[in-house]
Design goal:
Elements lengths: L29 H39 L7 H15 L1 H15 L3
The structure holds prephenic acid (PRE).
Prephenic acid (PRE) binds next to helix 1, helix 2 and helix 3.
Length: about 110
């Protein structure tokens, strides 16, 4: 007859690996999830603002060049292209966003 020695449960010696989606969040703690997601949003907003400022500089260069060559500040057909691209990608609010970007870039018309 063979006897078996009772085994005691052991704790894992390695830490469970985390996946990308759980590495920085603990779904059981809503405050932590929200706090971390807001940090990410703040970073994204800072990048968006930097990009908007960069767009304004590039747009200003185009406008100054056109005006120096005898043209006008506003180029309507180009604005229509910009507006339709934002609308195609983001719908009606995309148009509003594009209009705001254009106003920031060339002032009010
Ligand atoms: O693309 C141009 O010709 C620009 O002057 C740039 C820009 C823009 O910010 O997108 C700004 C003013 C014009 O009315 C059209 C577009």
């Amino acid at each position: 007859m063979t006897t078996t020695t009772p085994t005691t449960p052991t704790t894992p010696t390695t830490t469970p690996t985390t996946t990308a989606s759980t590495a920085t969040t603990d779904a059981s703690d809503p405050e932590q999830v929200i706090g971390e997601a807001r940090e990410r949003i703040d970073e994204l907003d800072a990048r968006i603002i930097r990009l908007v400022r960069e767009r304004m500089e590039v747009s200003s260069r185009i406008q100054r060049t056109r005006i120096a060559a005898g043209g006008r500040r506003v180029h309507l057909s180009r604005e229509m292209e910009v507006l339709s691209r934002f609308r195609a990608e983001l719908g009606g609010p995309g148009t509003t966003l594009a209009m705001t970007l254009l106003e920031l870039s060339r002032g009010r018309v």
